[in-house]
């Protein structure tokens, strides 16, 4: 009887130890994947690592489109009346004045405080200082930007006619680079990695993209303005945009370590493309 009890005790002890052993390649990997997904999907990245588009997607990730609108590529608003996110034959460009400048009238919501206004106006100035595009307070103009602290950071593409909302939520969108990004949408520019020739310069890692956001990576029939692809464009997605599990969704070619996107404002090539698109330096 005693020997039986001893054997039972030994058996139970071994069984307990077996259950206490870690299961290799299961829980640890799962938790690691969850941490990666949380880093890029559920928590804000380190602000020092974020580019403009990272910040926009962070603010917009819970955004619900207002009635009558949808959002393409994360922050381009389209109405049911005008569903395309391209601008055929430059039909959505702001008109050029006889003095050679392109004046974009705007009104700024009184809900913004002084620091917000400075941030937004800095985004305007970063474009105006290097191009013939000038943002001016609206007086009587029929077509103008109505800049509002609505939910999220977004803009329509190009001039839509009449009053067109451009949303810069405060404080989430209060980076001058974010403001410049949305103003470039309003001038008629899509995201850099949407260019028709992008496959020569980046690899889209489709398996890493959230299934419901794959459409945001479609190429557009863009006018590339005979300009080089710009990894440093303020209009470029970040490396992990819409990542499903923390893996990269965009990898530059041929050097996968080239930084993509940035946070400071329009790049030199961004300003060059505005000047080419609007024929700056040549009067009509």
UniProtKB/TrEMBL annotation:
Residue stretches making up the Peptidase M12A domain: 83-281
Listed InterPro entries: MetalloPept_cat_dom_sf, Peptidase_M12A, Peptidase_Metallo, ZnMP_hatching_enz
UniProt keyword list: Disulfide bond, Hydrolase, Metal-binding, Metalloprotease, Protease, Signal, Zinc
Superkingdom of the organism of origin: Eukaryota
PROSITE patterns noted in UniProt: ASTACIN
Keyword Metal-binding: yes
EC number: 3.4.24.-
Positions annotated as active site in the UniProt record: 182
Gene3D superfamilies, per the entry: Collagenase (Catalytic Domain) (3.40.390.10)
Pfam family, one: Astacin
Residue positions binding Zn(2+): 181, 185, 191
Cofactor binding annotation: Binds 1 zinc ion per subunit.
Cofactor (UniProt): Zn(2+)
Classification via PANTHER family: DISCOIDIN, CUB, EGF, LAMININ , AND ZINC METALLOPROTEASE DOMAIN CONTAINING (PTHR10127), METALLOENDOPEPTIDASE (PTHR10127:SF838)
Protein name listed in UniProt: Metalloendopeptidase
Lineage of the organism: Eukaryota, Metazoa, Chordata, Craniata, Vertebrata
Name of the gene encoding the protein in the UniProt record: LOC115061486
